[in-house]
Structure formats: structure tokens, C-alpha cells
């Protein structure tokens, strides 16, 4: 009797639950759990040393007010942090243009790039 029940349940699962759906659900739950654990660690303050070390790694040895790298890199990261600068606008426009090209919407691509160029001249 027990074997028959297991076979029935197994057959029902195989026919009614998609593996892809289970994988997406499992990955989503694992990602949420990992984020919750990280957030908990940050709130407790156990990541403070790692945060400090990572921030100091990106600074010059003699002067912590000066970040490492060329001057343009500092500007790019400041723009990315502000989420409204030229770097973000350019990356977003290129991503949308590539999407339009992949969708074979050439007119939309030309319109998008034309409007962005018009904004740049204003």
C-alpha cells in the first residue's frame, strides 16, 4: 500500500510540477535568504572591518582623501553613485538601443538615438 502511494505521489509530481518552476523558486528563496543573512550581518556590525578594508583598498597609501586610479574613473563612479550622470544615461541608452536592435525595431533605435543626441545639444 505504501509503495503504491509513493508511486501515485511521484507520478502526480512529475505531471503537475515543472522542474523549471521549482528551480526558479529555489533560487529566489536562496537569494532572499542570502540577502537577509547579509543584512543581518550588516545590522549587527560584523562586516565593519571588511567594509573599512575594502574602502581603504580603493585609496592611495599616503593620502586617503585621494582614490586610486585615473581622474576620469572617480568621475564615472561619482556619476554612477548619483544615478543621473552622463555615464548612467549613456549605458542605459546603449542597453535600450541594443534591445531594440535585437528585437529588429530599427525605427525605434533611430528615434531613440536621435532624441538622445538632440538632448545632448540642448
Structure, described:
79% of the residues lie in helices and 0% in strands. The chain has helices at 2-16, 19-44, 48-57, 71-82, 86-102, 106-121. It folds into two domains: 1-68; 70-122, no CATH class. With 122 residues, it is mainly alpha-helical.
Number of strands: 0
Instruction: Write down the Rg.
Output: 25 Å
As a percent range, the share of helical residues equals over 70%
Number of domains: 2
Q: Quote the distance from N terminus to C terminus.
A: 79 Å
Count of DSSP-assigned helices: 6
Class by alpha and beta content:
mainly alpha
Which geometry do the CA atoms define? flat
Instruction: Return residue spans where pLDDT drops below 50 for at least 5 consecutive residues.
Output: none
Mean pLDDT: 84
Q: What share of the residues does DSSP label as strand, in percent?
A: under 5%
Series of H and E elements = HHHHHH
List keywords for this structure.
122 residues; mainly alpha; 2 domains; 6 helices; flat
Amino acid at each position: 500500500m505504501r509503495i503504491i502511494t509513493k508511486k501515485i505521489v511521484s507520478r502526480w509530481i512529475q505531471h503537475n510540477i515543472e522542474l523549471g518552476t521549482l528551480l526558479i523558486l529555489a533560487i529566489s528563496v536562496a537569494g532572499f535568504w542570502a540577502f537577509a543573512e547579509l543584512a543581518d550581518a550588516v545590522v549587527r556590525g560584523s562586516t565593519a572591518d571588511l567594509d573599512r578594508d575594502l574602502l581603504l583598498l580603493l585609496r592611495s597609501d599616503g593620502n586617503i582623501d585621494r582614490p586610486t586610479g585615473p581622474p576620469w574613473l572617480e568621475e564615472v563612479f561619482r556619476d554612477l553613485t548619483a544615478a543621473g550622470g552622463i555615464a548612467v544615461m549613456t549605458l542605459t541608452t546603449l542597453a535600450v538601443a541594443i534591445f531594440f536592435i535585437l528585437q529588429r525595431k530599427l525605427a525605434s533605435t533611430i528615434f531613440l538615438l536621435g532624441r538622445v543626441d538632440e538632448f545632448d545639444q540642448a
